[in-house]
Amino acid sequence: MWWAGEDSNLRRQCRQIYSLLPLAARAPTHELPAHATGRRAPGQLRLRPRPTRPAGHANTLRGMPSFDVVSEVDRQEVRNAVDQAQREIANRFDFKNTDSSIEQNELTFTLRSVTEDRLAALRLVLEEKLVKRGVSLKGLEHGKIDEATQNTVRQVSTIKVGISSDKAREINRTIKEKGPKGVSSQTQGDSVRVSGKKRDDLQAVMTMLKAADLEIPLQFENFRD
Q1: 184 and 153 in one domain?
Q2: What does DSSP assign to residue 95?
Q3: Which run of H or E residues covers position 104?
Q4: Residue 24 lies in a domain
Q5: CB within 8 A of 157, min separation 6: which ones?
Q6: How many other C-beta atoms are found inside a 10 Å radius of the C-beta of residue 32?
Q7: Cα 104 to Cα 27: distance, rounded to the nearest angstrom
Q8: Coil/strand/helix, residue 148
Q9: What is the dihedral of CA 71, 164, 104, 74, to 10 degrees?
Q10: Which domain holds residue 177?
Q11: How do residues 15-56 score in pLDDT, each as one tens digit?
């Protein structure tokens, strides 16, 4: 009866053929890869999660109204003013035989005449033509009068463009002290960027800067709503 405890297939009589241990306990004992265990492999860089910004942060900055304060001139109108001034001095009786002339090089002008009195009259003609063409005289600077060849006198005048660092600081200080709350400004090269939450506040800043005696012509460009 040696075979009484076994069947013909030599199978165990016990019906339980699976382990009662949970799967986690029966995991193989060999080492898992680094990505499965969460540990860094030698030489592997630790990747930090990218910081998240509050919802709407980028849209808030991008959507804030702003404009640029600049100091420029219409160069074509400047050329037109010089042409008109040259035609006038060529036809006026009081400029005959005075060798009066205006030479232009971009935004620099060389004025020549026989006497300082005629030079002053020549300068006045140029200024009148500039004003008629809508060019502000705030940016016009006259140099000293020098003696030139053939018993003439000469003066170099220049139209300044762009906002200098000193003027930019003055503009920023004026906006900070007198502008509406919530309006800010910062210097960007030879211009000043003004931004605020409300469009009406920006309009108020424009009006304030126009009334301020900053001694340079100002324009407002690149309005972003």
Answers
A1: no
A2: G
A3: strand 101-105
A4: no
A5: 108, 109, 111, 123, 126, 140, 141, 142, 143
A6: 11
A7: 90
A8: strand
A9: -10
A10: 65-72+162-224
A11: 554 455 555 555 454 554 555 555 555 555 455 555 554 554
